[in-house]
Input
Amino acid sequence: MLPVLPGVATFGVISGVAMVGSGMTPLAAMAMSAATYAGTAQLAALQLLAAGAPMVVILFAALVLNLRFALYSLSMAPHFRDATTPRKWLYSYLLSDNGYAHFITRYSTHPEEPGKVGYYLGACTVIWTVWQASTALGVAVGAGIPTEWRLEFTVTLTFFALGISVIRDKAMAVAAATAAITAVLAMGLPYRLGLLVAVAAGIAAGVAAERWTP
Amino acid sequence: MDPLTAWLLICGLAVTSFVPRGSFILFLHRLPLPAVVQRGMRFVPAAVFAALVIPDIAFAGGALRLGLENPKLIAVLVAGPVAWRTRNTLATIVAGMAALHLADRLLV
Output
């Protein structure tokens, strides 16, 4: 079993509950889950919709939240260089935080290891299936889960564990700490732009730390 | 939610979720990348996860709370060493959730 699955499953249930909770029909909720496959963007979009934001703002916010996928895409592209175009569509669609983190923690140290694309496809298919199944479960039980269980915090803990597991050296720790502090300071920015500012600051700090430390 | 809004949202989210994912894998793979960008790539995961997680822990009800009266902060103080030692997501979640609920009880 992949270590990320409990987090994926809980986030899936939460997202399913949130979709029916915001008044979507079960069919529309599952269509959104299949077509989007981006829990953070889905939850943010529903929050904004409930707050009365116009569609353009909602979609822009979703795009901003999803821009981290462009960074993963950039990082994954060399691994998929030799794949056919239909396969690249599939690999792109399946790209997720957990799939990326799982793949990159395994292959960033040994990029030439054979069978890595098959490994990616296998891991991502499992993650996708667990996500859709747990979303369906969330849609089915609806608001039946008590909010005082605070299941939403398991999502934070999943990313927290993943974050710690990718920190391998001092420069990486500098990047993470800088991104964290910047994200807190930039909380006031609209549309969660602070996330992007923080990531940019973290990357810059990491590159600088690598260059200037012996 | 009316059906038109729901399906507009679904189509819009489908596009805004797929384009970033496909960006470099499908569309921009011939774009030559400067060396500094390639060096920066390895910091992406650490920076993204830190930026996603830390504000969620540090803020409660819209205000910055960095004291021990913040149960989420206590939860990650417990979960952090577990994550570091075990490198296991499930163990981290269990430790963090247990600490969160315990802190909630004790702090009421």
Q: What stands out?
A: Helices of chain B lie at 3-27, 35-41, 44-58, 71-86, 89-107. Chain B is about 75% helix and 5% strand. Residues 3-27 of chain B form the longest helix (25 residues). Chain B has a mean pLDDT of 88.
